[in-house]
Amino acid sequence: MADSVSIYDKTFVPFIKKDAIASRVKEIASAINTAYKDKNPLFLGILNGSFIFAADLFRGLSIDAEISFIKLASYKGTSTTGHVVTAIGLEESLKGRHIIIIEDIIDTGKTLSAFLPEIYNRQPASVAIAVFLTKPGALKYDVKADYTAFEIEDKFVVGYGLDYDGYGRNLPDLYQLA
Ligand code: 5GP
Ligand code: MG
Predict the structure, then answer these.
(1) In total, how many domains does the chain have?
(2) CB within 6 Å of ligand 1 — which residues?
(3) 107 is an active site residue
(4) Interior angle at CA 13, CA 178 and CA 20, nearest 5
(5) Exactly one of 107, 146, 154, 165 is catalytic; which is it?
């Protein structure tokens, strides 16, 4: 693991090592293996940030499961619908399915709280959220993850799929702003 990483004007220092990440992701995968046995869950990975976490989590599964990836698009709705976040690339029917949303990080919770109604509208049997990171100190919206790899303090991080302005996603370990 590099001592520090520079991206543009910022310096990031080592935070969570890849081995620690791998063992937490395996623990979450085994909890899902137990909870979702015979439920054939459909994972929905939210791009771009979750692609590495999703790949590792999915390979930890021994149950039957499907995975698909979506992008979120955000726009301002009417005064009654407020902030709307809709899925791009969601072709599967969610009706009656057990859905597990895979997200990189819940910061304020704004994105997921605006997106969840879109999922519930499609009448799934159940919805759970698996998230790599949460920042409890930054949470402002009513969103709760069912599976969380790490709870971290409210500081910007990169690596393991998370970027700073497009870069840093390829770092195998997680780094924190110095
Ligand atoms: P929320 O809607 O929960 O406030 O924000 C979620 C999004 O903000 C994440 O999906 C991610 O794109 C971005 N984000 C929040 N905190 C961080 C962070 O520490 N590092 C990176 N790379 N992205 C973050
Ligand atoms: Mg994201």
Answers:
(1) 1
(2) 49, 104-111, 156-158, 162-164
(3) yes
(4) 135
(5) 107
Q: Using an 8 Å Cβ cutoff, are 172 and 159 in contact?
A: yes
Q: Which two three-digit tokens encode residue 78? A: 């009417």
Ligand sitting nearest the alpha carbon of 110: 1
pLDDT at 162: 98
Query: Which amino acid, residue 134?
Result: T
On whether the pTM is more than 0.85, the answer is: yes
- Report yes or no on 164 lying in a domain: no
CATH number at residue 93: 3.40.50.2020
Quote the pLDDT of residue 70. 96
pLDDT, position 81: 76
pLDDT at 75: 85
Whole-number mean pLDDT of the chain? 96
Q: Is residue 45 part of a domain?
A: yes
Q: What would you report as the CA-atom Rg of the chain, rounded to the nearest whole angstrom?
A: 16
C-alpha 81/C-alpha 172 separation (Å) is: 39
Q: Return the pLDDT at 77.
A: 77
Kindly report the length of the chain.
Answer: 178
Residue 166, in any domain of the structure: no
Within-domain flag for 81: yes
Q: Are 175 and 12 in contact (CB under 8 A)?
A: yes
Q: Spell out, as residue ranges, where the chain has pLDDT lower than 70.
A: none
Range of the domain at 138: 18-150
